[in-house]
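User: Structure tokens for this complex, please. No commentary.
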Amino acid sequence: MAQRPDTITMKGVEIHLVDPPSLDVDWVGMQEPLTQLLAAWSEDGSDPAMQPRILGKPGVGKTSLAITAAKHMKQDLYITQCTVDTKPEDLIISPVIADNGKIRYVASPLVTAMIRGGICLLDEGNRMSEKSWASIAPLLDMRRSVYSIVAGVEIKAAPEFRVCVTMNEDASTFEVPEYIHSRLQPAIHMDFPTREEEYRILRGKLDGPSDDLIRQVVELLQVSHARDEDLSVRDGLNIARYAYRLLKFDKSTDERKALDQSIQQVTGENRGTLDGPKLV
Ligand SMILES: Nc1ncnc2c1ncn2[C@@H]1O[C@H](COP(=O)(O)OP(=O)(O)O)[C@@H](O)[C@H]1O
Ligand SMILES: [Mg+2]
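Assistant:
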């Protein structure tokens, strides 16, 4: 792992860096997108690393893929969660008032990764406005740098720095401007896991639920995928986990009833039950 100084001084300005989150995923199956991401991030002689975008529905494993790839590269992963409210300084350097009343300059996860030679995931990038994208456009071409208006310094990315963006394929997002799109290549598409992979993911993450309960949830997910609906691995995990807890707490229920109730409550929609007139 890269060394971690807490501050650096540039042009007389002290900049505070942030710590990477500690994250781990036991990645199951789905080698194709992992290979693609690692290939895109590799250097080829003097030809630099690429900046891929990872696309797929919510809950298919986009964030987990980036965590897994960073682990393969033995580099720290920093995550910037992009929202409609993300401002350029949130992506670069923010001024905050310190205890002594002075301004303290705090680097974003992105800038920290650039300085320390880590990896940055811009998570759910298509929620972010064009103005914010514009502020990091120079990072995404051969300049590999950003300029902080707030601190008055230019920050150059270390050679080991890598970046990728995840984008949810759902409607509640902005169109990313074309000149940015063309800098976020290649596109890595993620689809739902297979039945066997889904079973292994759920089984690996949940100790409590019976095998039978897990298999029923996987079946539900597979039916949903086949119908091109939006139930994801994350939904499946929550359905199995909540059904198991209902079973533990409510002695009057049985597995079937607990599952039906969990499906209703987790999906938050009237999807019906395991075999009702559901999943429309
Ligand atoms: N291939 C996989 N291996 C292990 N866990 C997975 C896999 N795909 C999805 N998951 C799990 O499913 C959940 C949702 O994944 P996440 O990466 O947050 O999805 P997304 O970022 O696409 O919304 C997480 O708990 C994650 O660990
Ligand atoms: Mg995500």
